[in-house]
């Protein structure tokens, strides 16, 4: 198997391809990306056979912005016979993978694939049984073993491959399934919820999304993001000139500051989270976030960056590199992660966690 498949939002194949080509090049792995507009996936074909496996081991999945999933795949299986689709699929995996922990039968995230998805759900059961009999798949699901992916791009037509559970998306089709809470004031509440699922490991939620933490929400109205923080029993400074949802104000956990988010400065040193959904120039938002982190006004930040019309990957990578550099120059050790989330359209979501500051006397809350 010498190809990797990357799932992405339809319409963002070029960005996904630019990113994987860049990251593979940094590892001196060469190949070429095959892109079909609006297909919802990209294939990167390596010149060297064993390089595909190396790529999915060595490129940290968490560092990819546009890819929702990353897996090694073999040649496309075409014209699978409705009488026996299973044998050719299982045949692709013999000698490639043993005792995988999970099977996911998936499709690209496109409208055309919706019908196919129904078939995938039904097909999973007999395919799983066959794989278990052949010892390709363990009897019990095991989240620390590789995942087998069967990726149908059309009826009777699929890629078969695998990903590593320590370097992939844990979600089916790379998309966390979230339900819109009916009492939330806006649909964008799901963006922040998805960001928590993607950026914060579940075993750290109790500490990093703990009740009683203080948060600032810049560009908060009507309150979809604040809702997520309030739901976790946090205390929120909501900054926006617009109207905040009354039900959120009634909780007593929200203080509304009707001022410019670029001018707001916290008067207290207890802010853990900064979240920001102001629609502004990406460079301006990135600079504001860097200022907050350098000043030690928050420990973690989640914010949206609007994507430019052209060279979207290059622009975003440039903004993030600039931020990283600025933090380093100020002695701040931080983890920066960015993702084009399922609920993002023409923007990406960035998460920055301040680990420590080299300067003991910095104005921080370390
Ligand atoms: C996309 S909406 C935020 C939606 C919100 N996150 C939610 O989930 O309900 C953007 C908000 O940013 C606010 N905004 C834009 N520029 C701002 C600024 N300079 N200062 C404060 N708020 C700003 C707008 O008033 C608007 O309410």
The CATH C-level name of the largest domain is Alpha Beta
Our measurement of the CA-to-CA distance between the termini, rounded to an integer number of angstroms, reads 47 Å
How is the largest sheet built, in terms of strand order? 2-3-1-4-7-6-5
Number of structural units classed as domains: 2
Task: Explain this structure.
It is an enzyme of class 2 (transferase). With 366 residues, this protein is of the alpha/beta class. It folds into two domains: 3-174, 2-Layer Sandwich (THUMP fold), CATH 3.30.2300.20; 188-354, Rossmann fold, CATH 3.40.50.150. Helix content is 30%, strand content 24%. The chain has ten helices and 14 strands. The chain has a seven-stranded mixed β-sheet with strand order 2-3-1-4-7-6-5. Strands 10-9-8-11-12-14-13 form a seven-stranded mixed β-sheet, sandwiched between helices. Strand 6 (147-154) and strand 7 form a beta hairpin. Helix 5 packs across helix 7 and helix 9 (282-295) runs parallel beside helix 10. The longest helix is centred in the middle third of the chain and has 20 residues, at 114-133. The radius of gyration is 22 Å and the shape is globular. It starts with a strand and ends in a 9-residue tail after the last strand. The protein binds S-adenosylmethionine. S-adenosylmethionine (SAM) binds at residues 185-186, 188-189, 219-225, 239-242, 260-262, 277-279.
């Amino acid at each position: 198997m010498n190809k990797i498949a990357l799932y992405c939002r339809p319409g963002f194949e070029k960005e996904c391809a630019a990113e994987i080509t860049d990251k593979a090049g940094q590892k001196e792995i060469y190949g070429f990306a095959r892109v079909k507009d609006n297909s919802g996936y990209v294939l990167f074909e390596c010149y060297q056979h064993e390089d595909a496996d190396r790529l999915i081991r060595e490129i940290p999945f968490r560092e990819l912005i546009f890819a929702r999933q990353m897996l090694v795949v073999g040649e496309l299986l075409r014209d699978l016979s409705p009488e026996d689709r299973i044998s050719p699929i299982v045949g692709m995996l013999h000698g490639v993978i043993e005792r995988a922990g999970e099977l996911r039968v998936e499709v690209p995230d496109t409208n055309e694939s919706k019908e196919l998805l129904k078939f995938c759900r039904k097909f999973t059961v007999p395919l799983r049984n066959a794989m278990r009999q052949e010892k390709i798949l363990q009897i019990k699901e095991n989240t620390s073993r590789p995942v087998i992916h069967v990726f149908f791009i059309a009826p009777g037509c699929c890629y078969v491959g695998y990903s590593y559970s320590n370097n992939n998306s844990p979600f089916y089709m790379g998309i966390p399934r979230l339900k819109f809470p009916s009492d939330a004031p806006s649909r964008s509440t799901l963006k922040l919820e998805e960001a928590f699922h993607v950026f914060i490991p579940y075993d750290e939620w109790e500490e990093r999304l703990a009740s009683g933490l203080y948060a600032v929400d810049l560009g908060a109205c009507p309150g979809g993001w604040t809702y997520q923080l309030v739901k976790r029993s946090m205390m929120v400074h909501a900054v926006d000139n617009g109207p905040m949802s009354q039900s959120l104000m009634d909780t007593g956990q929200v203080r509304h500051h009707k001022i410019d988010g670029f001018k707001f400065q916290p008067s207290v040193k207890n802010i853990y989270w900064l979240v920001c959904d102001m629609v502004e120039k990406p460079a301006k938002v990135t600079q504001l976030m860097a200022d907050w982190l350098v000043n030690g006004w928050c420990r973690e930040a989640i914010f949206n960056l609007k994507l430019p019309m052209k060279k979207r990957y290059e622009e975003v990578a440039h903004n993030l590199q600039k931020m990283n550099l600025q933090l380093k120059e100020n002695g701040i050790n931080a983890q920066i992660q960015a993702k084009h989330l399922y609920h993002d359209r023409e923007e990406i979501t960035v998460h920055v966690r301040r680990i420590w500051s080299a300067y003991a006397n910095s104005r921080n809350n370390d």
